[in-house]
Amino acid sequence: MGKTLRSYQSKSSPGKNYNIIRGDDGVTYCECWQWKLKRTCSHLEDYLHNQTQYKVSYRKVDNKPTLFLDLAQAIEKAVAELS
């Protein structure tokens, strides 16, 4: 399932919360409808903006912009462990 990183209160639906989750696949995503539609949302952008240790990059999947964390450090560490 992944790890919940932060919760945001919905602006349009009082009492509803959306979670920012880092999935087991390493992708960070939001539970809101906007993320499901466009693969980015204000909740995720706010969360990533406040996380200075991460770089944000965009790549297109099925011609839709998709937000990914830069995993360069994790890849370098994994390669070093394999060496």
Overview of this structure, please?
A hairpin with a 7-residue loop joins strand 1 and strand 2. By secondary structure, this protein is an alpha+beta fold. The chain has one domain. It contains 3 helices and 5 strands; from the N terminus they run βββααββα. The longest helix is centred in the last third of the chain and has 11 residues.
Index terms:
alpha+beta, 3-stranded antiparallel β-sheet, two-stranded antiparallel sheet, 5 strands
- Nearest-angstrom radius of gyration? 14 Å
Q: Total number of helical segments? A: 3
Largest sheet, strands/sense/barrel: 3 strands, antiparallel
Low-confidence stretches: none
Give a brief rundown of this model:
The protein is an alpha+beta fold. The protein has helices at residues 33-38, 42-49, 72-82; strands at residues 3-9, 17-22, 28-30, 56-61, 64-69.
SSE arrangement:
Layout: E1 3-9, E2 17-22, E3 28-30, H1 33-38, H2 42-49, E4 56-61, E5 64-69, H3 72-82
Antiparallel strand pairs: 1-2, 2-3, 4-5
